[in-house]
Design a protein that fits this description.
Keywords: Calcium, Hydrolase, Membrane, Metal-binding, Transmembrane, Transmembrane helix, Zymogen. With 817 residues, the protein is of the alpha+beta class. The chain has a domain of 129 residues: Penicillin amidase (Acylase) alpha subunit, N-terminal domain (Orthogonal Bundle), CATH 1.10.1400. 33% of the residues lie in helices and 18% in strands. A hairpin with a 7-residue loop joins strand 28 and strand 29. Helix 2 packs across helix 8, helix 5 packs across helix 8 and helix 17 crosses helix 19.
Length: 817
């Protein structure tokens, strides 16, 4: 017995020792993938020595003898810090995520293949100007130099994620960078979703469904069913399938995800220091690491510093010595869905403008980790590629015997958009910048510009040309066989807006489109945020860097200031105070708090929480009886709709009456019931004491790691969770998820912020939402996140001496013999 016990002890000790050894071995390999910023590497592909000087915040300052050498070093620096992110972005654009993630992401791969993102990227390589092709080639060589270095030095495969998601890392090609830009363009627009939702609303509520999404002054839409006489629809009111938020971000970006930004500038005569100021804050889904990466390049035309996206060799938002620029995704209608009739008895043909026509067809194979390969038959028509009905709720609006196709400004080869972005870094004034932006195709961008003499704004990209007789003007899916509904080509967006010398000396945009520009479509964007931004900038005659920072972090909700006096007009201060502890008293206390609230969506206050839950409950009560299950798919607040209902504009007050009940309910009754329901919900979550509730308890930013974020035991190491201020309607945008147990989870925000001061080159500032490194064990993985949450920044400088004086490390690249 003693012998058995001894052997059991030995076996236990041995197993523990083996486990510790394995953990140490795993730790060794994981730590090996952390780059050494003080190393010297001999690399092929550069013409002279290059320095990558890393600041204390891990911002690389790159110095080389030629532009090609500098872009080479940027590719190497991106790969050092974000290799896994870069390869995943590439896979997302290629439609190859299932090769590492498995069947769960097949839908994303299928959509990317059908949109032909990578095919069009490869076709666009030759469309770039010679300078951009050289930059793409040099950048790709830099990425590949680091991949080779990882293999030579056994540097833990380059990133710890590669141990859990085995991946043969293919060498980088210029087309890969163009594919990521295509993916970015597809992610920035939500027009497919909007068209599908309009169609579903029309089918569910033919008489008044347009009220929900219509903008003031927008012409009426035809009934969706009337566009397809005799069409049988699959069931427009059922809930659309939606992937989990983390699954939807498996590739960091996803088509139809949506993006926004603010961009504004003040001319020298409107600033305290006598130099132009510009602010920009591109707003995307929050991930860990974030989408953006800070960098400074010393090009032949001068120093350039700002925000990049790993995989793309360009400063997308930043400044050089004489020019600053900021990008804002323009809320234009750049996509149209077409419904194509398939020939009965012959699924290889569809109804074209001149009769039955054969689909263009090709086959592609998707490899699936842990599953069988999937062969796709990809079809396209004269209007564009056929989209699968299971995506984005499309199947709920398809008449039987029909398929949906997509026309999109970015759905083509020979796209010179990368040349516009690379050329922008070399431009020295607004005129040169506007000229080079003429090469932009997709995404459509509202570009804010500032130089030594003034400010301006250019709408860059392509916009579709629709005939005035088109039935829907792109707002609903249209019959693909009707020539009048088809695009008549594309036009440059700059034909709608180029303003390089505003009389006020101020330009400001949230991407919202002015209503007098029919070429741009009828989706105006968030006019509330646009008005708030213009108020903040116009309220001061003279601006400073600090006033721009304050505006960039503004958390006052113009929607709350508009809706609360309207919705609560007949609820404030009515009746005697109710007894303590009763629902009536709780309602009175909540209304008292809201009556004295200034609309600031502060994470530390209860009022934003009460307001947000109330408005969500109110909108749901208004539409539930009319829309049924479709009401659950209204994941965002439609303030213009609520305003229209409570003002009874065009008889919209009828929405407040519950159709199934005999009494006629008023909007005041519905508002009171919604408030009571909201307070009941919040009491069940946080207790009865209103004063102890906090917006930040529900509104928390979840920066999710697309690969590791849902793995138990690892997720708490790689995901970042922070309470945040703001909302989806504040200038400091902090959009919410809109569904699930916590619809107010903060999932989108300004993943990059920059304020550029041309009066003092070294007073410009910028920040990203997480940190520079994508390695969870690096101290730079999340070292910027708390500054970002508090609305703080780090300093940016074009002074080489300052960069070297505060260097954390200097990487030397030597030409290989």
């Amino acid at each position: 017995m003693v012998t058995v016990f001894r052997w059991l002890v030995r076996l236990t000790v041995g197993l523990i020792g083996v486990g510790i050894a394995l953990l140490l071995l795993a730790w060794y390999f994981v730590v090996r993938s952390l780059p050494d910023y003080n190393a010297t590497y001999e690399v092929p592909g550069i013409s002279a020595p290059v320095e990558i000087v890393r600041s204390t915040d891990d911002v690389p300052h790159i110095f080389g003898k030629s532009d090609a050498d500098v872009f080479f070093a940027l590719g190497l620096a991106h790969a050092q810090d974000r290799l896994f992110q870069m390869t995943v972005l590439r896979r997302a654009a290629q439609g190859r995520l299932a090769e590492i993630y498995g069947p769960a992401v097949l839908a994303s791969d299928e959509l990317a293949r059908r949109l032909q993102l990578y095919r069009n990227a490869r076709a666009s390589v030759d469309a770039q100007d010679p300078e951009t092709r050289a930059a793409l080639e040099a950048y790709a060589q830099g990425v590949n130099a680091w991949i080779r270095q990882v293999n030579l030095d056994a540097r833990g495969r380059g990133a710890p994620e590669f141990f859990l998601f085995p991946d043969d890392i293919a060498y980088w090609e210029p087309a890969d960078s163009l594919a990521i830009l295509k993916l970015l363009a597809a992610s920035s627009t939500v027009q497919i979703r909007r068209e599908v939702l309009r169609a579903r609303l029309s089918l569910a509520a033919p008489q008044r469904g347009q009220d929900i999404m219509a903008e003031p002054g927008e012409p009426p839409l035809p009934s969706y069913a009337s566009l397809f006489p005799g069409g049988r629809f699959a069931g427009s009111e059922r809930r659309a399938a939606r992937p989990g938020w983390s699954l939807g971000l498996a590739g960091y970006l996803a088509p139809a995800l949506g993006a926004s930004a603010n961009g504004w500038a003040a001319a020298p005569e409107r600033t305290a220091a006598g130099g132009a100021l510009l602010a920009n804050d591109p707003q995307f889904a929050l991930t860990a690491p974030g989408l953006w990466y800070l960098a400074r390049l010393e090009l032949g035309s001068g120093g350039v510093i700002g925000g990049t996206i790993p995989g793309i060799p360009a400063i997308l938002s930043g400044r050089n010595t004489h020019l600053a620029w900021g990008i804002t995704p323009a809320q234009i209608d750049d996509q149209d869905l077409f419904i194509e009739e398939v020939q009965p008895g012959d699924s290889s043909r569809y109804r074209g403008a001149e009769g039955w026509t054969a689909f263009g067809t090709r086959r592609e194979t998707l490899r699936v980790k842990g599953g069988d390969d999937l062969t796709l038959t990809l079809r396209e028509t004269e209007n564009g590629p056929v989209l699968p009905g299971g995506h984005l709720g499309i199947d709920s609006i398809l008449p039987a015997g029909h398929v949906a196709t997509l026309a999109w400004t970015g759905g083509q080869g020979e796209d010179s958009s990368m040349s516009a972005l690379v050329g922008l870094m070399h431009a020295q004034d607004r005129t040169a910048a506007a000229r080079v932006l003429g090469k932009m195709v997709a995404p459509a961008l509202s570009v804010t510009l500032a130089d030594d003499k003034g400010v301006g704004q250019v709408l860059a990209g392509a916009v579709p040309v629709r005939l005035p007789v088109a039935q829907t003007q792109g707002r609903l899916p249209s019959p693909g066989w009707n020539p009048a509904d088809r695009w008549q080509g594309m036009a440059p967006a700059s034909s709608a807006l180029v303003d390089l010398a505003p009389k006020s000396g101020i330009v400001a945009t949230t991407g919202a489109v002015q209503p007098n520009e029919p070429l741009l479509g009828y989706d105006r964007g968030d006019s509330f945020r646009q008005a708030r931004l213009q108020h903040l900038i116009g309220a001061r005659e003279i601006h400073s860097r600090d006033s721009f920072i304050a505006a960039q972090n503004d958390i006052v909700s113009p929607v709350a200031r508009t809706l609360l006096p309207l919705v609560g007009a007949d609820l404030w201060f009515t009746g005697e105070p109710a007894a303590q502890g009763t629902p009536e008293r709780q309602r009175q206390d909540a209304l008292t708090l809201l009556a004295n609230w200034d609309g600031a969506m502060s994470e530390h206050l209860p009022e934003p929480l009460i307001y947000s839950v109330w408005m969500r409950a109110l909108q749901n009560r208004i539409v539930q009886d009319e829309l049924g299950p479709l009401a659950d798919d209204l994941t965002e607040l439609y303030p213009r709709f609520i305003e229209k209902v409570f003002r009874n504009t065009d008889g919209a007050g009828v929405w407040c009456d519950v159709r199934q009940s005999t009494p006629v309910e008023t909007c005041t009754q519905i508002a009171r019931q919604a408030l009571d329901a909201a307070l009941l919900d919040l009491t069940s979550r946080f207790g009865p004491d209103l004063a102890s509730w906090r917006w930040g308890d529900m509104h928390r930013a979840r920066h999710v790691h697309p690969a590791l974020g849902e793995l138990s035991g690892i997720s708490y190491l790689v995901n970042l969770l922070q309470s945040t201020s703001g909302s989806g309607s504040t200038v400091a945008l902090a959009g919410s998820l809109g569904y699930g147990p916590n619809p107010w989870l903060n999932t989108t925000g300004a993943a990059y912020r920059g304020v550029y001061d041309l009066a003092d080159p070294d007073s410009s500032v910028f920040i990203t939402s997480t940190g520079q490194s994508g390695h969870p064990l690096s101290r730079h993985y999340d070292d910027l996140s708390e500054l970002w949450r508090r609305g703080e920044y780090i300093r940016m400088s074009l002074d080489p001496a300052l960069a070297r004086a505060a260097a954390e490390g200097v990487t030397h690249l030597q030409p290989a013999p």
